[in-house]
Amino acid sequence: MGGVSYDVRGSYFESCNCEAICPCRTIDGVRGGRSTYGLCFGVLSWRIDDGRVGDVDVGGLSAALTYRYDDDKPGSPWDFVIHVDARGDESQRAALADLFAGRGEGGHLAALPWIRKAAHLLDVRVSAIEIDDDSDGHRLRIGDAIAVRAASPVETDASVACIVPGYERPGTELYADTHVVADAPFAWELTGTCAFASDFAYASG
Predict the structure, then answer these.
(1) Do residues 136 and 95 make contact, with C-beta atoms less than 8 angstroms apart?
(2) What are the DSSP calls for the chain, one per residue?
(3) CA dihedral over 15, 21, 27, 30, signed as positive or negative
(4) Neighbour tally for 185: CB within 10 Å
(5) What is the dihedral of CA 18, 21, 25, 27, to 10 degrees?
(6) Residue 1's pLDDT band (cuts 50, 70, 90)
(7) Short-list 196, 200, 160, CA closest to 16
(8) What is the distance between the alpha carbons of residues 118 and 99, in angstroms, rounded to a whole number?
(9) Residue 2 has pLDDT above 90, yes or no
(10) Contact by Cβ (8 Å): 53, 104
(11) Cα–Cα dist 137/147, whole Å
């Protein structure tokens, strides 16, 4: 992975079709493995509190990714769609697309599965993205296509971490109350599956 430098930080929220605690997580330092059903699909999202991609300020903007991969296919390649924040201008949206498509200079992003594995970027879409967290839980809405809400933490004394925000940043495993995606070619509706919330900090190498 080579290209533009980046340094961004903020909050991260995801949900997929795996059972909680997602078997992909690291639990008390022990790395996870195969997804619950072999076929994994879901939504990942980032709310950037502050940061830059190259010389472009992307603080206050959000991005998200819908995806699907099959553990039984060689290399478990990803198919994914990137959503970039409609509030950004053209240069900010391009910077977000470059960042989450893996066009940055190494660093943590180079380890992410849709960047280090074979993958098919199906589309980059400009969308209204809302990512909120408060006493009522964590919520993600992307236009009329995606709605995810998770308010109930999984009861565990274990430290749970996910590769996407970084294994060094433990977070909160949750049950998804609502998980609806109508984001062609992806479409599903889930409830009671896993979700995860944490902070993140990505910087190029």
Answers:
(1) no
(2) --SB-EEEEEEEEEEESSPSSPTTSEETTB---S-SSSEEEEEEEEEEEEEEETTEE-TT-EEEEEEEEETTSTT--EEEEEEEETTS-HHHHHHHHHHHTT-B-SSGGGGSHHHHS-EEEEEEEEE-EEEEEETTEEEEEETTTEEEEEEEE---SS-EE-TTT-TTS-BEEEEEEEEEEEETTEEEEE-S-EEEEEEEEEE--
(3) negative
(4) 10
(5) -160
(6) very low
(7) 196
(8) 17
(9) no
(10) yes
(11) 13
Q: Which residues, other chains included, contact 136 with Cβ-Cβ below 8 Å and sequence gap of 6+?
A: 151
pTM of the model: 0.96
102-117 pLDDT tens trace: 998 889 899 999 999 9
Would you state the structure tokens that stand for residue 29, as one six-digit string? 């330092």
Token couple for 96: 């977000």
Q: Which amino acid is at 23?
A: P
Place of tokens 């919330």: 197
162: left (phi over 0), alpha (psi -120 to 50) or beta: beta
Mean pLDDT, rounded, for 6-19: 98
